[in-house]
Amino acid sequence: MALIDTLIGTAGQWVTASDPKATLLQPVAWLKKTGSYATVNRLIGLAIPFAPRNGFSVEEMRPGYVRAKIKLKGNKNHFGSLYAGAYFLVAEIPGGVLSLFDLGPAYTPILKEMTLEFLQPANSDVTVEFSLAPEAVAAILADADATGRAKFTLEGKLKDKEGNHVATSLAHYRVRKKGFKPQD
């Protein structure tokens, strides 16, 4: 576990130090950005092999923010639009990604409950964005440090390639601090 924790910490530093808008016109910055996201997605794949097999990827990260995508290819349902399970996958994993990279590897994210409201079929890849304000991150850390656990909720708007709002997710998470021992 120490190796994975070190990799998570290092990948988080790479991502936050990279320029999300870097292009091939800035080759070093572009390589740093693409290498950072490749590392993050590889770590997710190691932890949850189901995710990359189903076309999940983190597209952008910075402190308190993550944008993820799920591909339509390989995830179609019986009438050709995105399968319901794929919506769930793209809406659930980013909460863990935010937890690991914003709180650190000393905190384990756990999904407690999630609901999805389907608004219209998606006939393309789907993206979702989540954010946690710095004050929310600080409150989560303070609560977890004091009690060994903390709760937070993320709401996401899932959008298709054209930007249509196709579903809304509401996810309730709990984080646990590894090795927590209450003070007497």
UniProtKB/TrEMBL annotation:
<dbReference type="Pfam" id="PF14539">
    <property type="entry name" value="DUF4442"/>
</dbReference>
<dbReference type="InterPro" id="IPR029069">
    <property type="entry name" value="HotDog_dom_sf"/>
</dbReference>
<dbReference type="GO" id="GO:0016787">
    <property type="term" value="F:hydrolase activity"/>
</dbReference>
<protein>
    <submittedName>
        <fullName>PaaI family thioesterase</fullName>
        <ecNumber>3.1.2.-</ecNumber>
    </submittedName>
</protein>
<keyword id="KW-0378">Hydrolase</keyword>
<dbReference type="InterPro" id="IPR027961">
    <property type="entry name" value="DUF4442"/>
</dbReference>
